[in-house]
Amino acid sequence: MNWQAISFDWNQVRAFLATAEEGSLSAAARALGQTQPTLSRQVAALEEDLGVTLFERAGRAMALTDAGRDLMEHVRIMADAATQVSLVASGQSQVIEGKVVITATGAMATYHLPPIIRKIRDQAPGITLDIVTSNEVQDLTRREADISIRHARPTQPDLIAKLIGESAAHLYASEDYVRTLGPVENLKDLEDADFIGFDRNDELIAEMARHGLSLTHRNFTLNSRAGTVMRELVAQGLGIGFLTRDIEQLDPRIRPILPDKITLPVPVWLVTHRELHTSKRIRVVYDILAEELPKSPMV
Fold first, then answer.
1. At what angle do helices 66-92 and 10-22 cross, to 10 degrees?
2. Within a 10 A sphere around the Cβ of 196, how many other Cβ atoms?
3. Helix, strand, coil percent values for the chain (each to nearest 5)
4. CA distance 56 to 64
5. What is the pTM of this model?
6. What's the pLDDT band for 234 if we cut at 50, 70, 90?
7. How far are the Cα atoms of 28, 121, 203, 275 from residue 280, in angstroms, in the given order?
């Protein structure tokens, strides 16, 4: 190993990678929790140490030069290796204290996690929990979260997944909105109704067509990625939404529409990384979630 050839600082490389992926110094600084001047100095120092220009600066935007693009291929490999080192080190920790990041949908985090979090706090008071609410699948292999509660089975081989249970989703609306529709006896009676969609309505339209309900984009007068927002929009009589059946216990303002005609399965998976699964603090949280989530009305 020629140690003299390694003349740069890892923090500088990290600053370069964040700037390249985030697109600007300000966005990279926010992502890394640093000040913009500090990050700018680190990038400039890396350019000076390597003797190349890595970015073309156009206002606030930072575009990679040819040299920067060449370097990115190697830096990503370094970042993946650094992440793996962190995962292995975390996996060896046997201390039941420290931070555990859980990611879940807004509805799961709002209505179902709080009593389980109380049990975690009672059993392991040294653990600090960060709850990340998102409908996007967080990348556990890159430490975006330690544990994920999601509705799709993961495909990455390094992830451990346990099927906690399966809920179901139906069409729901408020009593007031149902009255405006008149008698609803079959799915055809809903073809002119207002629907509240997600961000991928093409998939929802295709799924409804398979069940015999013909919808177009004109039906989707409102859209929201957040399940909690969709629930309130439905409760306020602003349209029909797909919600999980636990909503019937959570909100008496909402009723199912033709549940025997359309039922979509909603699996609940508990996921973690195989390296983190050997960490005692991760394991404690994971095991409590695995025990308590099947008792939730969600599943």
1. 110
2. 23
3. 50, 25, 30
4. 6
5. 0.65
6. very high
7. 32, 15, 40, 11
Cα–Cα distance for residue pair 79/74, rounded to 1 Å: 9
Domains of the chain: 3-90 (1.10.10.10), 98-165+267-295 (3.40.190.10), 167-265 (3.40.190.10)
CA–CA dist 299, 292 (Å, integer): 11
Between 90 and 153, the more confident residue is 153
What tokens does 138 get?
A: 């967080």
Q: What pLDDT does residue 149 have?
A: 92
Q: pLDDT digit string (tens) for 243-283?
A: 998 888 888 999 999 999 999 899 999 998 877 666 888 88
Residue type (1 letter), 185: E
The pair of structure tokens assigned to 92 is 């060896």
When computed from its CA atoms, the radius of gyration of the chain, rounded to whole angstroms, is 24
Instruction: Measure the CA–CA gap between 140 and 45, rounded to whole angstroms.
Output: 31
